[in-house]
Queue: 2 jobs
Job 1
Amino acid sequence: MPARILIVEDEEALSVLLKYNLEAEGFDVDTAYNAEDAKVQIDEQVPDLLVLDWMLPGLSGIELCRRLRANKKTSDIPILMLTARGEEDERIRGLDTGADDYMVKPFSVPELMARIRAMLRRVNPEIVSNVLVAGEIELHRLTHRLYRAGEPLELGPTEFRLLEYLMQSPGRVRNRVQLLDAVWGRDIYVEERTVDVHVGRLRKVLNRNFEQDPIRTVRGTGYAFDEKF
Ligand code: CA
């Protein structure tokens, strides 16, 4: 599953630009325009990383940062603080706001991307590795390419996400609810048997010219991707 990033930024143009660029890198991106809204979203689902503007209407970015650090559930979220030139004072330079890193506006988007990747890599190397490899199967996250024994395979977007999610944790059994949340998202209602339909399609492509099926069905539960198949 791609890393989820929450952007908390009240400048809409910047928020849209960041969302666009982060999605192009393969991340799942949510946005909030103020700290209160961000708090509600974080309570619902803790993101893998937070891009947080310093100056927000209402509760400031620093105050939100402080509150997140004080809460056990959210104290470890990597936080990249954004600040306007002139706003950066000693506190942010010393990062004693609780942020892990900061960038001064206007910043270069590629540099921001590089910092975000570096921060995520520190926490969870797998989450930013662009290529997942298991046996003869190679999945390229960013380019959405899939190979088995060097042969390119064509998967639909849903089957691709399904395989990506399963390959991320080899051997681990994922139930249908977890698969629905990870692949279809929480916002839409999909019947659990839809998962089975898409796993069927995935298997058809993945195993067309091969005897071994890396996807294991766990009766009554869900599916796993077996590294040794
Ligand atoms: Ca602002």
Job 2
Amino acid sequence: MLVLGGTTEGRELAARVPVVSSLAGRTSRPLLPHGEVRIGGFGGVEGLVRYLRAERISAVVDATHPFAATMTAHAAEAARVTGVPLLVLRRPGWSSQPGDLWFRAADLMSAAALLPSLGERVFLTTGRQSIAAFAGLAGCWFLSRSVERPEPPLPQRIEVLLDRGPFTVDGERELLRRHRIDVLVSKDSGGGTAKLDAAREQGIPVVLVDRPPLPAGVLTAATVDEAVAWTAQLG
Ligand code: NAP
């Protein structure tokens, strides 16, 4: 069985079921899953099809990040071509609570377009590959947090914070205060809510970028337990 992605869910699944985990290789010091691990792209759909056949992979669980849309599309197509069963494991997105000031954006460019009307000092938590979408906003100052250092193009006024979660509400509250943040930007990744809780407490608006759609017809699971049950019934 092949698990795509080194997300928390992917690592939890690899700890419970014997699998080969595949990481893209974007982070220089990844948190490695239990068991066998391969790192790096497959070479598109064709490469993935070759890999599934050569390694006689019995099933694939796509546990990539909800915004890794290319890998998810490739996995769906390779599964269709080979007939290898595929499950997409995605933790649910976030739901708003009373007190939240959320602005939904369809994509990163729409999120950037909303910012000038919401505030000047922006906490950007969308990951280093997303920062280019905000590079043209000369009127905003950015605190950008990512695991790896982002590469240009970057906004003119930016402070880069290199850090990896999980984060606490106390820590997020302190960060928002210290940097006098007016608005938070996040992908709707789901999972830990510390930054959203701290923003709600302080009445700070949040721009939440919607998930890209899943390929049509894919089977999905929301929890690792569901994914383990799916692997068990494969026989
Ligand atoms: P992507 O745009 O969906 O994929 C781009 C290419 O990266 C794929 O075509 C594939 O190359 C390679 N790739 C992606 N995931 C892979 C995997 N698990 N194993 C082997 N190759 C993989 O991906 P992305 O958004 O750059 O994300 C890359 C990785 O970072 C993913 O595993 C994802 O879970 C993780 N991540 C992404 C985000 C995010 O916001 N996008 C956030 C946190 C973590 P080939 O075509 O050569 O096979």
